[in-house]
Here is the input.
Amino acid sequence: MALSNSKAHNLYEKLKYNFLFNNDINCIHILLNLYELENNINNIFPKYVSLNYLRRQIRRLLKDRRGNHLIAYNLGQLIHEDINRLELFMYLEGYKQGYLNNRVANSLESKVIKHFSISELYNMKYLVHFDSSIVEINKLKAKIFADLRKEEKKNKQLENIISNYTSNVIKSKVLSLNKYLDKQLAIDYDSQSPNIREDEALLTLDELKNIYKEVEKIILRNGKKLYYDAYWNGLNDRVLERYK
Here is the structure.
């Protein structure tokens, strides 16, 4: 028996929640199957790019503080799995929305068939996922992204998901960062004979709050970009599937 729309929605939301907040990876595979995307899993490739960038930004934020490299490294170790999980979720959500949008896929197909033959399309693994050489398609992609950003500005759906996740999963870890910082040794050259001394590594509450604000900003920006890129890839796969 098919689920009603409300029951299906509740099931999807529960699966999403369990993946994000309970780290249940099986929920993603169930969702892919329910979305009928399981066969496309080989073309799903989220790019985990925010961690190295995050570490660089935290080092810059604490540029005048001794041990900033150590702090940034420990922060990355502490929250990298949480960030990866959110990024995978955002990618799959964007991919699904793009893959299931027939209207926009039709618009992309109408442009693509002007530039590729049916035999070319049949043998392609990727369509124009990464091809920026066709001006007409670049314009369509820009319009699609502009529409997505306009919709996000209106309903803040992505921002709410990301902010809720960072607030409930990542914030407490960032604010407790002092517990995870290794003791750092530094050479004190102020005296006539160099001494090895233990460095003061503890962060103030204000510093921890500033670090969290920077982390949240980076994750929010990266998460939206990942969603839009995934949306584009889902559209491309939907069109390409029509010629297989």
